[in-house]
Design a protein that fits this description.
- With 461 residues, the chain is mostly helical.
- The chain has three domains: 32-73, no CATH class; 121-265, no CATH class; 281-432, no CATH class.
- The protein is built from 16 helices and no strands.
- It is elongated and about 130 Å long.
């Protein structure tokens, strides 16, 4: 049932709408007076209505003053909060991580050394074969450029090497065999001179003491220790022959298929990493081959000069001593000292102290010429290692594999350093190339500091 009183009290809906339209019209007038028209000639009130509808509010519920204030605000980009800090992000944590990495590297190095000592009968022939292959590879390459196949070029190179070694061995053995009688006489005379010097020297020795020392030496030669040492020496001879055969077989395959073998090992890499590994391998082979060839030239010059001096002085076994000088030249630092000591001792026994002193002077002069002139000229930068690094490599190689380890330690240390340098140089070059290819950053937009347009304005456009 309708109630007339209530109907009369309720204001007329039409009058309310008219009043609201009048209010909005007044607001529109004020907004147009304050802010003018929006983009594309639309009134500011229309912009406000569109913005309010885009935000989900009724158009009439947004006050004009609030919309004007919102349009004047500068929209700032959102500020991202810092990621949660890691418990290892402080200085102590970084130090702990570095210490862990160092311990891991030391453990790997110890494992490698243990494996090398355990498998030295395989590792040493393999390293010798790699050393010889790096030295002979340029000869094989030149023969292949002439027109020979790689297998035939390998065969010719090995036959030439065997011929040279056989000729040298024949000359040395012939010289030793021809000088054995003279060597026995010279050795006996030298021992008598040493005994006379011991009797009349600053610390005189009696004949009884000399006789006791002579009998003690003979007892050592006749004792069980010498026989067991001889048996052990026979075992070492067998190991030497086995290692020599293995080194020859590995050398043949490295000369014939060396590039293919290396490409197989790096075939699992792609892109820049593959290129860097290829360059590092080529650099290592170049350094190793240059070291072997340069050391061979230096050793040959030393052997010729010292051997010629021994021949002029009339020292027996001059050619074998020259061969010893040649072989010990492959051991840096200590090789020259060892060769000089051996030559001086042999000369002392066979020719007396005066001639031995002259031999020592010759060896010292040759070593000075080698270290200051010949080695820098021939080797160049093939052995770019600090003397301390050379000494440590020699010590480690001698502990692991004796004389052979001392011969192999320094060139392979130089190869490892050359590979690291090549890898770092290629990575630095790649980084510089990428930096040069990147376009410069665009200049800052002057309008980026202004207020961002409202969504309603974007739709209106």
């Amino acid at each position: 049932m309708r109630m007339p009183g209530r109907q009369q009290d309720r204001p007329d809906q039409g009058s309310v709408a008219a009043t609201r339209l009048q209010d909005h019209g007044a607001d529109d007038g004020r907004a147009s007076a304050d802010g003018g028209l929006a983009e594309h000639g639309r009134p500011a009130e229309a912009e406000r209505r569109d913005a309010a509808e885009a935000q989900g509010h009724p158009a009439d519920s947004v006050e004009p003053e609030a919309m004007a204030a919102h349009s004047a605000e500068v929209v700032e980009p959102p500020v991202l909060s810092d990621p949660p800090s890691s418990p290892w992000s402080d200085g102590f944590g970084r130090t702990a991580v570095r210490c862990g990495q160092a311990l891991l590297l030391l453990a790997l190095a110890a494992l490698v050394v243990y494996a090398a000592v355990t498998l030295r009968l395989v590792i040493i022939p393999l390293l010798i074969a790699v050393l010889l292959a790096a030295a002979l590879a340029p000869v094989v390459t030149r023969l292949t450029r002439v027109g020979l196949g790689r297998g035939l070029a390998t065969l010719v190179t090995l036959l030439a090497a065997v011929l040279v070694l056989g000729l040298v061995g024949f000359v040395v053995v012939t010289a030793v065999a021809n000088q054995i009688p003279a060597l026995q006489d010279s050795a006996g005379q030298g021992l008598r001179q040493l005994e006379d010097f011991a009797r009349t020297g600053p610390f005189p020795v009696t004949d009884a003491q000399l006789t006791a020392a002579r009998e003690g030496a003979l007892n050592v030669l006749r004792g069980d220790a010498f026989r067991s040492g001889a048996i052990a020496g026979a075992g070492l001879v067998g190991q030497f022959i086995t290692g020599l055969l293995l080194a020859i077989v590995v050398l043949i395959y490295l000369l014939k298929d060396g590039p293919s073998i290396f490409r197989f090992f790096i075939s699992g890499t792609r892109g820049n990493r593959h290129t860097r590994l290829l360059h590092a391998g080529e650099r290592s082979a170049s350094v190793l081959g240059g070291y072997v060839r340069g050391t061979t030239v230096v050793a040959l010059v030393d052997a010729v000069i010292i051997g010629g001096g021994l021949l002029v002085l009339g020292v027996p076994l001059a050619l074998p001593l020259a061969l010893v000088v040649f072989l010990t030249a492959y051991i840096p630092v200590i090789g020259a000292v060892a060769a000089g000591a051996i030559a001086a001792l042999v000369t002392l026994v066979t020719n007396g102290p005066t001639t031995a002193l002259i031999v020592v002077v010759i060896v010292l002069v040759v070593n000075q010429i080698e270290g200051n002139v010949l080695a820098p000229l021939v080797l160049g930068k093939a052995l770019s290692l600090h003397p301390l690094a050379i000494l440590l490599a020699l010590t480690a190689g001698s502990i692991v594999a004796g004389i052979i380890g001392a011969v192999l330690a320094v060139p392979f240390a130089a190869v490892a350093w050359a590979a690291v340098k090549s890898w770092n140089e290629d990575r630095r070059s790649s980084a510089e190339l990428l930096t040069a290819q990147q376009p410069p950053p665009p200049p800052p937009d002057p309008g980026s500091q202004q207020a961002a347009p409202l969504p309603g304005a974007a739709r209106a456009g």
